[in-house]
Amino acid sequence: MKVTKDQAAANKESILKAASRLYREKGISGIGIGELSRSVGLTHGGFYGQFPGGKEQLASEAVSRTFESNIQDWRDAKSIPELIKGYLTQAHLDNWTEGCPIPALAADVARTGGTVSHSFTQGVERLIETLMALVEGETQDAKHQESLRILSSITGAILIARALDKPELSEQFLQSVINTWPAAPENEEAAHEHDAEEPVQSRCQDRP
Predict the structure, then answer these.
(1) What is the dihedral sign for C-alpha 142, 148, 151, 154?
(2) Are 117 and 109 in contact (CB under 8 A)?
(3) Total Cβ atoms within 10 A of residue 150
(4) C-alpha dihedral sign at 95, 99, 104, 108
(5) Is residue 200 one of the residues assigned to a domain?
């Protein structure tokens, strides 16, 4: 039976979603085309119908896909401290399949190279642009440098923390980076004033 155009697009989308999750969990070289195809109910032939360039084409497109949700989350952040605290969490540390692709895939991408590296580079550049809209700096170059420092710090902290078998040391790595970019004092004071003014009933209304 001939596959319709809509079904072909749906099949490709299914493979990309599966690959973006499984690559982060198992690595690009940790899962083959057969396993990926079976995970979404396709044959080898169905896979190559969507990705004639084979595994390199899939990996390249899947790596691009892994950045999308992270970029949107970062764009939603109101400040650098908010972004960093939202990134450096235990939940993110444990979430390989949906977490940031940089600590999950950087080593694999470095070994793979080619179009996969190109897709990864584009994703990193988009994250840098997102950070530049939040950081302070007198020039674009200053903002760019600060964005590089933040990106390397938070992704490096996740990468190292995941490799440790001491939870307390993992937490120290995350907290050390959080402490490097604390909230502005005036923001903290405003938050305290707001808490002090808010009626107790309002703050406790959700409690049983």
Answers:
(1) negative
(2) yes
(3) 22
(4) positive
(5) no
